[in-house]
């Protein structure tokens, strides 16, 4: 048994609050929880997904219309230094090649617990959060703050821009 972190919306006004909820799950580490949330970008309103809904290791992360597909369902699996962001394919979101370069497009890869797959969050438990890579110390962002479908999801130095803030559906 492992714990799965999920971020859930609370009822409220247009700036819905974000609360960190810790729940236990018996799911295998090779698959994410069936109730895993989607991560929605605050600026674009689009969700973090995998290009073409792909299930192969190395497939790039993009933003797409939120559609409840499995490539948009993410579980937060605790590690000793933060958490892995694991999708329904049992693959982890990562900065490929242990990159510390701003603008590197994120992808999915077999979970191995390396720092390039470990994330932590900043911000309060009552608002959208930054998701920060342990290895690069950069935030998950949509490239150029775009609102277009298919835009690459990259790592970028953390700032206060809405394209680096994430909420859950």
Model description:
The protein is mainly β and 169 residues long. Mean pLDDT is 83; it is low at 1-33. It has one domain (2-168): Trefoil (Acidic Fibroblast Growth Factor, subunit A), CATH 2.80.10. It contains no helices and 14 strands. The protein is 0% helix and 40% strand. It starts with a strand and ends with a strand.
Q: Based on DSSP secondary structure assignment, what is the total number of beta strands? A: 14
Give, in order, the helices and strands: EEEEEEEEEEEEEE
CATH C-level class: Mainly Beta
Structural class: mainly beta
> Which residues sit in consecutive blocks of at least 5 with pLDDT less than 50?
1-33
Terminus-to-terminus distance: 25 Å
DSSP helix count? 0
Examine the secondary-structure arrangement and name the CATH architecture: Trefoil
Tell the overall outline.
globular
Oligomer: single chain
Which strand order spans the largest sheet, edge to edge or round the barrel?
A: 6-7-10-11
CATH topology value: Trefoil (Acidic Fibroblast Growth Factor, subunit A)
Q: How much of the residues is beta strand, in percent?
A: 35-45%
Mean pLDDT: 83
Tell me the major beta sheet: 4 strands, antiparallel
> In percent, how helical is the residue content?
under 10%
Radius of gyration, CA atoms, in whole angstroms? 14 Å
Key descriptive features of the protein:
single chain; 169 residues; mainly beta; Trefoil (Acidic Fibroblast Growth Factor, subunit A); two-stranded antiparallel sheet; 0% helix; disordered N terminus
């Amino acid at each position: 048994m492992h714990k799965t972190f999920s971020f859930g919306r609370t009822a409220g006004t247009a700036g819905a609050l974000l609360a960190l909820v810790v729940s236990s799950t018996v799911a295998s580490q090779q698959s994410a929880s069936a109730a895993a949330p989607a991560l929605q970008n605050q600026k674009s309103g689009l969700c973090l997904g995998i290009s073409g809904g792909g299930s192969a290791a190395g497939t790039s992360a993009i933003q797409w219309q939120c559609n409840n597909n499995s490539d948009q369902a993410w579980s937060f699996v605790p590690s000793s230094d933060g958490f892995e962001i694991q999708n329904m394919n049992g693959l982890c979101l990562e900065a490929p090649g242990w990159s510390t370069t701003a603008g590197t497009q994120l992808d999915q890869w077999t979970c191995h617990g390396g720092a390039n797959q470990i994330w932590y969050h900043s911000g309060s438990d009552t608002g959208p959060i930054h998701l920060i890579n342990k290895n690069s110390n950069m935030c998950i962002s949509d490239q150029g703050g775009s609102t277009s479908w298919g835009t690459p999801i990259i790592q970028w130095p953390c700032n206060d821009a809405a394209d680096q803030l994430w909420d859950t559906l």
